[in-house]
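Researcher: Here's the sequence for the chain we discussed earlier.
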Amino acid sequence: MKILLSRTDRIGDLILSTPAIASVRASFPDAHITMVTSAYNRVVMERSNDVDELVDLPREIRAATFGARFRGYDIAIALAPRSTDIRLVGASRARLRVGYTYVRRWVARLTARLDLNRVMISPADPELCERQPERVVPHEVDQLLDLVALAGARVRVTDLRLTLTDEDRRATSALPRDPIVLHLGQRWFSQGSTLAGTRHLAAELRELGAPLVISTAAETESFAPAFEAQGHTVVRSLPFHQWAALFERARCIVTVDTGATHVASAVRRPTLVAFEHRYFRLNSQEWAPYDVPSVLVRKPGSENEAALAAFRAQIVRGVKELIDA
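Model: Thanks. This is the structure I predict for it:
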């Protein structure tokens, strides 16, 4: 049997797909499993034993054109609800082609059936969640496990998969042990959060008594000097697995809603996530830390001083709760 899996979007989303991928492997142990990623997110799967072949989707090739190279596969699964992955899977013409889209994406629901012969409809919808506070949306991990079950994967593996080596851990061994790690995603600096407020937050977190380590992403390196000037330990743009190793040695991770949330879950660390004010009800269900102790807070709807101070106080209380547990 030959099985094709495709997920070509973000790193965090691919991490959340690893239980579904492991479930496919456990359910079809003798199959040849090919995974299509992007050049950007492939790092998540580079050490995986759950796939036999890892292939990047070239940027310059249309997904449908690329997917045609997988003719003859028995099962093909689009693990992302994106036209790129759905068209790639459709072009394989596998006997069983499975994917999903969202409940109110009416056009996508119609066009998906041109490529797929089994379509799962996710209940996730930001507007419905705002209008219906009682609406429950399963975590993305659980939705993806249901998706691969639709393709015949009967063994359900629920652990996130991320393989670290002793070499990864040695690369961060000089940093303080059991720190609070504040990860500087771009969303700390916009729409209900500011550079000045985040600098205040860093100072307040350090007062909790645990060492504080600040990590940056490539797009937030320019903010590093502002925190170094406060005397904080700042680690800039580590390679992916070393970054995960830093999280693994942490007492608690503090982040905005970004891939850092899911890296922290994969290495089993307590996590506080500051979600965007808009669509908090949906995002805090579907993309919350998975199966680890967590606190979820909502960014304020404005950036006045009182709102920012209350936001910081909520974060500090949440971190204290996690590190004292």
